[in-house]
Predict the structure.
Amino acid sequence: MELLKIGTFISQERKKLGLTQAALAEKLFVSEKTVSKWETGKGLPDTSVLPALCEILHVTVNELLCGERVSSEEYADKAEINLLQLQKTKEEGDKALLSMEWVIGILSVVFLLSLTVIAAYLSMETWLRIFLICFAFAVSIVGIGFALKIEQIAGYYACKKCGHKYVPKYNQVFWAMHFGRTRYMKCPRCNRWSWHKKTTR
Ligand SMILES: [Zn+2]
């Protein structure tokens, strides 16, 4: 989304109505500075004020996000483009989450291994040895559980049989056989079992 184009559009529609930045800000219960930020392309109106802003300016949300008036013929196309852009933003977020899964997973395993090695080879009291190993296991189980939670909620799993994409329940992901992120699960749509791949699209 082009913030500057959106900002110019807001400013232009506001002026058409003979409103000052201060008057528009007052109607929306935001500061004048906020309106100025939108109009100079330094920020996008929050989703909470978007409907009210569009109503005051007599434009649709779609038009505002396009930064221009949209004729009814091209309306569906433009709406789709905006939707795709929002989807892309989600996709990027999901990808970042999934790389975090790696980091957390690897850290958990490294932590477990190093503490186990320390407990096994360093001379210490037996109770301390047992405590260290239990502690290492507990921490890495929490870490891996957290990494798995990220995998569950970021993106989708795609059914191999029918192509359906879905977000499974944590339990389902937890108990599924897997190679990396590809898990053997039952599809909620076709009810068949197959290897479901992780995808962010
Ligand atoms: Zn399926």
Notes: The longest helix spans residues 75-121. The pocket of zinc ion is lined by residues 159, 161-162, 164, 187, 189-190, 192 (CB under 6 Å). The first strand starts at residue 156 and ends at 158.
